[in-house]
Write a structure and sequence with these properties.
The complex is a heterodimer. By secondary structure, chain A is of the alpha+beta class. Chain A has 11 helices and 8 strands. Classes of the chains: A alpha+beta, B alpha/beta.
């Protein structure tokens, strides 16, 4: 057969899955996993965004607390201590007891030390130019006020009350007012910052909610679309499966009806006494036997397919001489070949390596391929079987390749993908009244794969078809090693 | 036997009487003394005073420092050893004489301000720290960096030649 022929490998197309469109089949098979992956991806993305927003909001709140809230508290303390400084100084005026006056002076100085330290801390943490300017002004005003306060305190303690009051009114009061105004301004600045940060937090929270809702909506929408596609593809698969089951039932019924009709007719004739004579009876018996065998063969094929379908068939894998198996298969089917008037040629390469396979299953596989050639090679009435050793595709292993040729009409490109589907009958075969169940090739393929091999087909319209069965060569060294490991 | 007991009891009684009325041992050392520091405000430019100058100040005869600041005298409560030392060594008069002198001075206008009285060395120190023209006294152990110690007649309180002395504080 020409190299220009179309070629397809049957590996992987084995399971009894109804044939539907590529995309629906893909969705049907991987839809759930895809949906899960997509949903997880979407949710992960959403969670990532939300976590980022939450962190951002948390940072903003912390900053707000650290700078604004604590700042406001600090300014509140500063205001109190500044008042305490002044209050304690003035308390000293209320008594002539020097011991009490000294205590008030002490209180005033302790309070002013706290204010001085607080202003220095504010200035240290100030970042904005406005804050720095305000802090510097506050520090300056406070120092000036303290100088006057010291003067006033000294006058009070030495008993010069009038001079102390005059000095305080002239200088102390205006300076303290400036300090108070600066502190009020600082408080206002903190208030503004706190409001701004609160606004930022609110914005972040709003953005986070919008993102979350959007992603959830997208997730729901995507999930809906996926579920719809999934349901649709499953529905299509179910319908196709039902249709194929009906086709199969019709096909099997049709295949059974012909021999059954012959059987019934023969039995009726015998029963009615139409058959007379030993010779005629022998002919009828032969007919009944043939039809019974045909029915039996059909039922066996269905059962065989069922047993190979789940891939759990029990095979006895042994190093096998391929030439012997081919010979056995040919002998088993030779009668059919002869009856059909076909010529069968064999080209078995000498000294073929042993193959690890189940001889019975391999023989069945070859018989199916030869039977297929008999059915569809009517045009050339020739079948060729060729067996040779070759390297595997990856070049690492040795394989034995068995080709089964025919010179029939060939297979159309559109049919190539489907001939290994169970119960599939090509419209041409049906119209040409070529009997079959559509199980021969799927069985052959299942058997080949169960033995670690693969079955492929190349075909050219009008020229013929080649089914190629490749089986791995028995590697004695590897096999021994594996046994040792198992032991 | 009765005589022996009587003699023993008498001996014991005599010994107890001797111990009870024993005189102070000869050679016991007199109470220790330490210098009494005269302190002023750190802003005060004065570093040294003579004993006569100190007397004029503490008797209210001198009312202003050379820089024009009014002098404010700070005394401790009556009865304290430090105050007694000042009365004895500087003012050279009794408590009542000093009180009388200041009352008369204030009435006549010779004295502008009566001395401020504080109950503790710490109070004196803080007063002097707060009032630029204040002058007070305290033991060296009560002095810290917030006040300035003046030399009197060229000597600091820890010097042996320092004239103004006060019995050491009884820590017990």
């Amino acid at each position: 057969m020409s190299e220009r022929g179309q070629k397809i490998t049957a590996r992987g197309a084995a399971s009894f899955t109804p044939r539907v469109g590529k995309a629906p089949e893909f969705f049907s098979r991987y839809g759930s996993a895809l949906l899960l992956v997509l949903l997880v991806g979407l949710e992960a993305g959403a969670v990532r965004f939300v976590i980022r927003d939450l962190r951002s909001a948390d940072n903003e709140v912390q900053r707000m607390y650290a700078s604004s809230v604590l700042g406001l508290r600090r300014i509140g303390n500063l205001q109190y201590d500044a008042q305490e400084t002044r209050r304690s100084t003035l308390y000293a005026l209320s008594t002539e007891n020097s011991n009490l006056q000294v205590q008030y002076a002490d209180q005033s100085r302790l309070a002013d030390a706290r204010v001085t330290a607080g202003i220095a801390e504010y200035l240290k943490e100030a970042e904005l130019p406005g804050e720095i300017e305000l802090g510097s002004r506050l520090q300056r005003d406070w120092s000036t006020y303290l100088a006057v306060r010291d003067e006033v305190l000294g006058l009070i303690l030495e008993g010069s009350t009038k001079e102390a009051v005059a000095l305080d009114l002239a200088k102390g009061v205006p300076l303290f007012d400036r300090v108070r105004q600066s502190l009020d301004e600082t408080q206002r600045l903190y208030d503004e910052q706190a409001s701004q940060r609160l606004l930022n937090v609110a914005n972040i929270s709003r953005r986070s909610v919008i993102r979350l809702v959007s992603v959830l909506l997208c997730t729901i929408l995507t999930a809906g679309v996926f579920v719809w596609v999934l349901q649709k593809s499953r529905m299509a698969s179910t319908l196709q499966f039902a249709r194929m089951q009906m086709d199969f039932a019709a096909s099997v019924s049709h295949e059974l009806r012909t021999p059954l009709a012959v059987l019934c007719s023969a039995v009726d004739n015998i029963a009615d006494g139409v058959v007379t004579g030993k010779e005629q009876l022998a002919r009828y018996a032969s007919t009944i036997r043939n039809q019974s065998r045909q029915i039996n063969g059909l039922v066996s094929q269905v059962l065989l397919f069922a047993s190979t379908q789940d891939g759990k068939g029990r095979y006895v894998m042994r190093p096998t001489n391929i030439a012997e198996v081919i010979e056995s298969a040919v002998v088993g089917i030779n009668e059919l070949v002869m009856k059909a008037g076909f010529t069968l040629e064999q080209h078995i390469a000498p000294s073929l390596p042993l193959v690890l396979c189940d001889a019975t299953a391999l023989s069945q596989c070859l018989q199916n391929l030869i039977t297929n050639a008999l059915k569809y090679g009517e045009k050339g009435r020739w079948i060729g079987i060729r067996a040779a050793g070759e390297e595997s595709k990856d070049g690492r292993n040795q394989e034995v390749r068995i080709d089964v040729h025919d010179r029939g009409h060939g297979i159309e490109r559109s049919e190539m993908q489907r001939i290994f589907e169970p119960f599939y009958r090509s419209p041409a075969a049906v119209s040409n009244q070529i009997h079959g169940t559509g199980l021969g090739l799927p069985i052959a393929k299942n058997l080949a794969e169960a033995m670690g091999g693969r079955l492929s087909v190349t075909s050219e319209l009008g020229v013929g078809t080649i089914f190629t069965l490749r089986l791995p060569v028995f590697d004695e060294i590897n096999e021994t090693e594996q046994k040792l490991v198992q032991q | 036997m009765r005589r022996f007991i009587t003699i023993t009891v008498l001996v014991w009684l005599a010994a107890a009487a001797l111990l009870r009325w024993a005189p102070v041992p000869v050679g016991a050392s007199p109470p220790k003394e330490e210098g009494l520091a005269i302190v002023v405000n750190q802003a005060n430019s004065m570093n040294e005073l003579s004993m006569p100058e100190l007397r004029t100040i503490f008797l209210g005869e001198r009312s202003h420092w050379p820089n024009g600041r009014r002098i404010t005298i700070v005394m401790m409560d009556a009865g304290r050893p430090e105050r007694e030392a000042v009365l004895r060594e500087i003012c050279r008069m009794s408590e009542s004489d000093l009180r009388r002198r200041f009352v008369q001075g204030l009435l006549t206008g010779e004295i502008l301000v009566s001395p401020k009285t504080l109950s503790s060395p710490e109070g004196v120190r803080k007063f002097v720290f707060n009032v630029p023209g204040a002058i007070g006294y305290m033991r060296p152990s009560d002095v810290d960096a917030s006040v300035k110690v003046l030399r009197i007649d060229g000597h600091y309180p820890n010097d042996a030649q320092y004239a103004l002395r006060v019995p050491e504080r009884n820590e017990r």
